[in-house]
Write a structure and sequence with these properties.
Two copies of one chain form a homodimer. Chain A is of the alpha+beta class and 472 residues long. Chain A has 17 helices and 18 strands. In chain A, the strands form five sheets. Chain A has a five-stranded antiparallel β-sheet with strand order 5-6-10-8-9. A four-stranded mixed β-sheet of chain A has the order 1-2-4-3. Chains A and B meet through helix 8 and helix 17 of A and helix 8 and helix 17 of B. Chains A, B: One of its GO terms (molecular function) is FAD binding.
Chain lengths: 472, 472
Amino acid sequence: MNPTQQSLVDEVRSRIGERAVIADPAEIEPWLTDWRGRWHGRASAILQPSSTPQVAMVIALARQLGVPLVPQGGNTSMVGGATPPDDGSALILSLRRMNRVRAIDRAAMRTDVEAGVILHNLHEAVAAEGLRFPLTLGAKGSATIGGLVSTNAGGTQVLRFGPMRALVEGVEAVLPDGTVHDGLCGLKKDNRGYSIDQLLIGAEGTLGVITAARLKLVPAIHSRAVAWLGLSSTQAALETLYALQAQTDRVEGFEVLPDESLHAVLGHVSGTRSPLPGRHAWHALVEVVAENAEQESPTDLLARLLEALVAKGIVTDAVISSSEAQAEAFWRIRDSLSEAERATFGPATQHDISVPISDMPRFMSDAAEAIEAAFPGTHVSGFGHLGDGNIHFHVRAGERRSEDWLAREGPVVTEMVHDLVTAAGGSISAEHGIGVMKREELERLCPDRVRALRAIKAALDPTGLFNPGKLV
Amino acid sequence: MNPTQQSLVDEVRSRIGERAVIADPAEIEPWLTDWRGRWHGRASAILQPSSTPQVAMVIALARQLGVPLVPQGGNTSMVGGATPPDDGSALILSLRRMNRVRAIDRAAMRTDVEAGVILHNLHEAVAAEGLRFPLTLGAKGSATIGGLVSTNAGGTQVLRFGPMRALVEGVEAVLPDGTVHDGLCGLKKDNRGYSIDQLLIGAEGTLGVITAARLKLVPAIHSRAVAWLGLSSTQAALETLYALQAQTDRVEGFEVLPDESLHAVLGHVSGTRSPLPGRHAWHALVEVVAENAEQESPTDLLARLLEALVAKGIVTDAVISSSEAQAEAFWRIRDSLSEAERATFGPATQHDISVPISDMPRFMSDAAEAIEAAFPGTHVSGFGHLGDGNIHFHVRAGERRSEDWLAREGPVVTEMVHDLVTAAGGSISAEHGIGVMKREELERLCPDRVRALRAIKAALDPTGLFNPGKLV
């Protein structure tokens, strides 16, 4: 620890108390590496205030002393967004002790939640009040609200209620100048210039440290049904989704996967079995819910709508879950995909991309063809949130597989995927953000945009106090 | 016209054509004054490109020559947001020729609209497709989409679908560096850093010139019913609103007014009559809609819910419109309020303020008491969008009335109102924005916020090219 960092740590200890500092290297260690083990940083202390005034105090001190801070929640970033720089110049500012659900307002259907609350815990807290926070994702047992807001998180249930941005009514944050921005004041209408709330959502902790958020809640689920569909193509899948959405607003999930991915799961994950007999080029998982007993049951609704789509030849075959256990079994196949793909097919470059929804089927086939032609022997696999125009686009090494394929050829493959996405008017980061991983690619492909982002960053955080090296 | 402005005008004429410039003072005149006649500016030309590339070209030229531009749509700002500076240093950039509804996507329920499209025309265009754009306001016959997005406009129908920000899916704009930001690309998920779209919404044309927007549409109204309620207090009005919202999500309007305001309308506007017999301290207008014939009819729904509220003593008396003509008659009372108040009670300082919704009843009575005590003889009147926590808070001169009351005492009264609002955690601009009118007050009351806004402005528009003198 350099003397300046030591001064900061001493000040924080004396003003807030022993518990506000972790300096034991063994305790710090797990927080220096991102959760996929790709980025390793150094930080000689973790500061962990437990209230907004304490966060403001830590930030004011860090600012005076010129010590950069890396805000961290559950450390579940997929792009190295919460890993400290490897030169040890920054300390980690953990929000994990700010873990209170401050209030749940049943009438207004919203909750005020501190940044360190783990998503799964929020789900349980609002469920106890008969309500639901709809956003969910694989890392829900670790990911915290502050990080989810800071990255405008997505997940498997974005279709109906949108990503985090659509669920945030206000943000409380400490800005680089040490002031507290209070966006939880409950104003439905406020036109006092640029929205600081909106600027902080998705800013990856580079403009302010989010300490709490006011989040929308929705009615609890009364019942749900999950259908598994066999389809001839992604175009058929998209037509199916549009047809369902035209008839009901209760479609909460729509995920697609190719046949070989299904079979990778069946081969790799014990206890799984194919939901449908026979083979289909593509599969889709559809979830429909009801909020009360007066609504047509999800099972009846799905049966009615899917019957018509099978009759029209848009859906080849379909089965609807007959129990909650079967619904879970269908979702388990989807949730095991990444792991099964990796185990079955070996290394692959992975891309979290989006294009306009209606263009996705054509993009998937055209881009796959182009990549496989440019890198003979590779194989492209796309799966995921078709209904959001967001596919996880994997390029497997295939016949080119070697010990160092990912390191050697991965970056070139990724560049080409990103070029194709950009040419299609898409985004090289649909839900994971930019972090460390995509910073150079963003600058290469969107230089105008990066210039604007950098100008904003320099304006609000001129000394680079927050999350150095990320995003901009 | 100074030589630099003349060069810009000549260049625009030669590159885009004669129609792109208005230089006749008589034609310019109406656009130099805001629509309430409070601010007068000077500008020796109006530039009016008709496409996004033309806007980009005009802005690139203006930037090279250092001529500031005042973006203007329908010029309906309530705060002088579109009036040029009075030193003649800027030219007006009118977006009115960009008046195409580019596309209406019925399946996706959205539309791409150019900045110069007048709100009323958009309503008609989407109605022809069986859809509806829900935002509406008094100036709908003049206000344009670019201005409505740039000011995050509100209005009388915000309750259900939110203000403009909630209805914008993407923004196309020319930034000060001359680049075109294309937020209409149709990406549902895009996490490439700070949201430029969100930064431009409500920025009052100071960060970019909006050329088009992608807007959400909702189903057309199949039927509606409007009820007029007599109430004992604003607290009773709020309880009524909460009770209705707990039972249905189809409440689209909820406006309150005091008895004397109703009687001002009845006395001033011919053909109006009191919807209810007897006197009530407060009145509320409630609109409920249905999107299809399968839903319980709005009349039945309102009758059922209001009957219960009358039985509980929350609502004193109520009448439901028995025809569309009667529904219109109820709304006409509401829409005539400002005019009738002015004609009946003379000058008043007017404040477009918001506080947390649940605090509004107490704020209205406490603030009225404080103002009337500080300025004996004045009388406070509040009316409007209670359901949004947004009231138009008028302080009438009353016994202090004199020729120059507004000019003499108005600013002091306004300061006190704004102090009370700020102390209550509210906003001094709920829906009208800051413009010229509230700039000094915003700086007085929210200096931290103004510092952040100025930093962003300086970062993105360092030479002050766009809308000089507004907001920051």
